[in-house]
DNA sequence: CTAATACTTAAGTAGGTGCTTAAGCGTTAT
DNA sequence: ATAACGCTTAAGCACCTACTTAAGTATTAG
């Protein structure tokens, strides 16, 4: 009998997990891309995607669960719009890591500067 | 006989696809997170992850294929480091969409301002 | 009314993802 | 040399994802 593995811990929370998982699919990114140009119906989102409507609806659910997209149904048409706060959350996660890396580079620079004229890898003083 | 679906078009290129797919996994994000604090060996990356080493190596391959991480083997130790340019690519993709959305909001605002003396949406005078 | 539109739900499937264990290989320590 | 270390590869399995088709539900048009 095989052991099952657990859902895995999510650094930054489960919300970030849903966000990046939503952005990981090309079709879903195309939908997000379209929605940055303004609200759209499900049919309008489906039009350029060469896939069936149910497939698009499933993608839409993923996007909604992630918080990237909201939608409201009026009459028989569902209108979708982007949720910029979610977009910014993902952006922020990456920015935080990038700046953390830059800071650790800074600390390395200070360390090397404090060490005096010890030669380093890559370039010589 | 069932029809197979195609790999799907990638808005922004296949590189972005690999990037977001790499970031979509919590374990992989944990590895990225660790690497922002400085270079690490494969064992060091594996230590906090409660999974076998081969699993970590597979994640590492995904990260390398995406361009997020580079590694070099010296002796029997492989040292991994983050590749900030890739991190910035992903960040930029999101930023581009967010600003596109903001600009379409601006255009809506100008349109409404030009249409009459109703300056904003959401609240009535 | 009926018919068309715009989704929506349900059920099923090929292929991909994320793990596992076991065995192998080059490098360093004793 | 022998053994330990650090990874690496291979094979296999459970689960998940991204689709499909078919049938169903409101809503609007004629």
| Elements of chain A, N to C (H/E) | HHEHHEEH
The CATH top-level class label of one domain in chain A: Mainly Alpha
Lateral strand order in the biggest sheet of chain A: 1-3-2
Oligomer: homodimer
From the coordinates shown, what is the CATH architecture of one domain in chain A? Orthogonal Bundle
CATH superfamily of one domain in chain A: Winged helix-like DNA-binding domain superfamily/Winged helix DNA-binding domain
Structural class of chain A: mainly alpha
Q: What percent of residues of chain A are in strands? A: 5-15%
Q: Can you tell me the CATH topology of one domain in chain A?
A: Arc Repressor Mutant, subunit A
Q: What is the gyration radius of chain A calculated from CA atoms?
A: 22 Å
How far apart are the termini of chain A? 60 Å
Can you lay out the helices and strands and say which pair or pack?
Two copies of one chain form a homodimer.
Chain A: H1 14-23, H2 26-36, E1 40-41, H3 42-46, H4 53-66, E2 69-74, E3 77-82, H5 84-114
Antiparallel strand pairs in A: 1-3, 2-3
Helix pairs in contact in A: 1-4, 2-4
The structure holds a DNA duplex (30 and 30 nucleotides).
């Amino acid at each position: 009998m095989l052991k099952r593995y657990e859902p895995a811990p999510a650094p930054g929370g489960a919300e970030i997990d849903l966000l990046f998982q939503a952005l990981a699919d090309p079709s879903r990114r195309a939908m997000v891309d379209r929605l940055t140009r303004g609200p759209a119906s499900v049919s309008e989102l489906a039009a350029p995607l060469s896939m069936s409507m149910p497939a698009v609806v499933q993608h839409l659910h993923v996007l909604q669960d992630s918080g990237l997209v909201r939608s409201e149904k009026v009459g028989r048409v569902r209108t979708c719009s982007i949720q910029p706060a979610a977009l910014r959350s993902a952006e922020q996660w990456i920015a935080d890591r990038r700046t953390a890396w830059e800071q650790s580079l800074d600390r390395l620079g200070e360390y090397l500067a404090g060490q005096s004229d010890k030669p380093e890898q890559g370039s010589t003083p």
